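Support case: adenosine-5'-tetraphosphate complex. Customer-provided input:
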Amino acid sequence: MKKKIIFSGIQPTGLLTLGNYIGALKQWQELQKKYFCIYCIADLHSLTIHQKKSILSKNILDILAMCLACGINPEKSIIFIQSHVPQHSQLNWILNCFTNFGEIQRMIQFKEKIFLNKNINVGVFNYPILMAADILLYQTNKVPVGKDQIQHIELTRNIASRFNKIYGNIFTIPEKILNYNGACIKSLINPNKKMSKSDFNKNNIISLFDNDFIIEQKIKNAITDSNYPPIIKYDLKNKPGISNLLVILSNITKCSIKRLEKDFQNKNYNYFKKSIINNLCLFLNRLRKKYFFYRENEKYLKSIIINGAEKAKKYADITLQKVTNVIGLDI
Ligand code: AQP
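Agent response - structure generated as follows:
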């Protein structure tokens, strides 16, 4: 039987965080066992925030090397850079014309961004439609997403259904895959907020490049809900800080949260945090060893970029040709 298709992307907007690892890369690696996976480094999406030329190109290679270190296998899956496959921008324009203005105005991420900064660019508005183009180009069956992206998948489904209703079954309607144990890793200092790589306050995040000393400082300073009895228990409402740390430890050690709650019964926060520090340092040191192995071989990285784009274009072109044909653009 033909394998179902997975599509996902990651923006080259800075050093990856533990949130990016748990919410995306860890899953990406696991999904390869069962699905045909197509992963993209979403450089076009990253342009919604001004990027410096030298930093952007460095970030792209850094992220590619980190994907390989996390076990993304370019022989099995396709990994490519979004802007190298022009079909993304082409389909994006067509889908713009099948999306209502009001639909995008209702996107939570857009509303949050315009609330914080009135002078945002049109790319921020268009962002979810480009994401729809990314997904629909590959006839994607499933998209692994974090909680904050669920609304964008709903939008993608709506755009695809609208198009299919007019022109027949051109697009596969994608479904989301939500990793419940890690759907959203929170900031260490403010566990009501997502851990984000572009966060200016680096105490909120664990970067995959933080050294042992920094990890120790950050975990020691992580919020632990001191208003409640000091037990180690998953309770998002009353203990969001401890719950976040439990999710992190569970993902790093592959132990279930139930099992961790049992292991840390009658233990204090200090003991719990020490265990997180030890496990995180061990995990990140191993990961970085693999990362540097790939990062130092730029020739190999560039060959993956070229091959990835070639493979992706083949799939993307089939869909784009179908689309242009039914619309009446290819005369
Ligand atoms: N805190 C998180 N918890 C779980 N998953 C997360 N992801 C990001 N942060 C968390 C997942 O990582 C993938 C790639 O994300 P992205 O770089 O394309 O965009 P993002 O979600 O906007 O990530 P950041 O770190 O918050 O980046 P910036 O700061 O640039 O906006 C996605 O699958 C995402 O769900």
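Residues 9-11, 13, 17, 19-20, 22-24, 42, 145-146, 149, 182, 184-185, 194-198 surround adenosine-5'-tetraphosphate (CB under 6 Å).

Case will auto-close in a few days if no follow-up is received.
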